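Sanity check

After download, print the first record. It should look like this:
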Amino acid sequence: MKRLQTAKWPLGILDLVLIWMALFSSPTQSAPKPFGIDKRVPWTSSHVAGSPEPPSPYMAALAFPNLKFDEPTVITRAPGTDRLFVATNTGRIVSFEDRRDVKNIDVMLELPSTTDPRNGRLINRQIQGLEFHPDFQNNRYLYAYIREHFPPPVRCRISRFETYADNPLKADPASELIVLEFPSIGHSGGSMKFGPDGYLYIGTGDGYGQSDPMATGQDTSDLLSSILRIDVNGTHSVKPYAIPPDNPFADTLGTAPEVWAFGFRQPWKISFDRMNGDLWVGEVGQDTWESIYLVKKGGNYGWSVKEGPQWFRPERPLGPSPLSPPVVSHSHAEARSITGGFVYHGSRLSELQGAYIYADWETGKIWALRYDGEKVTWHEELDDTSLDIAAFGETHKGELYMLTNQDGRIYELARRPEIPESQKPPPFPEMLSQTGLFESTKDHKPAPGLIPYTVNSPLWSDGAYKDRFIAIPGDGKIQYVNDDNWLFPEGSVLVKTFSIDMEEGNPASRRRLETRLMTFQSGPQGREQWAGYTYIWNDEQTDAKLLGKDVLRETYTIRDAKSPGGTREKTWYYPSRTDCMICHNEKARFVLGLNTLQMNREYDYTGGIDNQLRTLDHLGVFDKRLPAEPARLPSLVDPSDESHTVAERARSYLQSNCAMCHRRGGGGNADIELLHDIPVDEMLAINIDPVHGDMGVKGSVLLKPGDPDHSVLLTRMTTREVGGMPHIGSLEVDQEAADLVRKWILTLGTD
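Expected structure tokens:
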């Protein structure tokens, strides 16, 4: 009776509602939705182990396990002390004892940062070179090669600092004396060394951008694209240094007297052989070649008439000296940003004495060569690492250290231990059918235990179709660290097959081109590491063969009724193993598509449509339960899905296609950060001058709100010529994405 008294509806109407709900509510609504895969099947057929290459003779070992630095660029020594000194892009110089168990560092100098009033951005004075005066014990002078971003213009500065009289390990910021300065938007060089003659040698780049737009490479009237040589002990009426009288152009009218040699694009690290005084330079190339030069007085090393051994702009006038060839050059199949090293004169690796040791920043490869003055007598790859080696350092005893930029650690070369016969892995599969990944390779039917997947925002692959699978051995589990970081168990393999239609618009004509593997297994010193491999499908589409270490390009004829003659050509880029690891780098955590942001979406399994995270969670693939229901977890969006905002779509595209490198420490040497969740005004892009030039459009900046035509980010996306992005892997512009980014730029600044 109480219910009747308090009811707001008449009894008959309420009862009718209850009856209706009982009759028409489906009992299946409360039943749990089926999972995409009901039960996990262990993958037990793997034959993907080891490497197709023989073990390298050396390996990179941590030299100081307790030390880590923030964006280091230089490691060097100082006269009168056994300590080592590290400089960073954050404007710091620190020192520490050369002792393996050292735990403490001492700050020698910390340059103040500035704030750009145009955008509020905090700007560090980047130290890219550091050298101590030969008489440092008495005069307490040290020299820093500083990249200055503000106030404009961007420029490079050689500054001298003095340490305190009562503390030679602490420099006085107020003691700064600007020795010389020159404009340099990009390719700033950044290395200095005192030569055996007591003069300071300075490596400068071409200063502007792609393809030497100011043609300064062969122009000796300025300080760019050169090795400079100055006397910091001498005096001059207006300069705090003197010109050595035997400099090659000291008395040449119209030539900068500081120039010792010229024709460099980006000399990244110079060094002198302590035994004979030879000057070695690592030269970063542009399109095709990375080079090592042995530099002589007055030498012309080609840029931008030549790039290493290859003609680049042969129509440009030559400078005042004949061209000198590199000692060695590496194609971009194996090197992409060379780091010059030292001639080794230590005792720990006696077999390498007299060899010049150097590396590549992007690929992590380390080489050594011997040169008799006329020819290379020996040249060998010492190790293939995943390290971004930014600099080498030489101790007083001639031992070498390697400095990495991303993880900020110091390594040394060590002999690789011999692997006992019983521990050697079986031969690496030469054919895809031998990997144990497919039950039927011909039918592209995965082996039991492989889990198919897709991603929210795919990497652009020249319009190819992709099939993706996760292969985790046995009952291995993925460690769910956070939404952006999943750690895979040893032996995991990620599989992706690329296909194209041989007749436009006809799926029945689809042809498999390649299957790429990302493999995770134990590496040197017990460190697990990822490696990438490509298998190329045969014409019969029955199997695929392992590609060697180098890049391959193949051209296919596509039937297309809209093309003249009814056909068109499509060239496909098969990546080298080096290419794979440039994008799958350490800062991007190696695995690009398998994280919560990309996997939080539905997939059409054979068991039905289900959210991928929900299915993986149900299968027990993760080491712990999901932190929340998928609907409450973050995700990228499909850039082609117009139900989302232009900003969401564009930022998701940039995250999946660009941010693996364009994030702090990711390998892109511009400061721009393209992670999807960074506020636009913190991307280091709005109205920021481009490091590598304006791509021929004057007045361009990285991102100009409301003006896509003067935004270099878009300009680079819309070309596959010099300076195009991405710079590897793709031969065709993603026009749909370019149109999307154009729309997004138009919306910027409209709030």
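If your output differs, re-run the checksum step. Summary of this record's structure: The longest strand covers residues 167-183.
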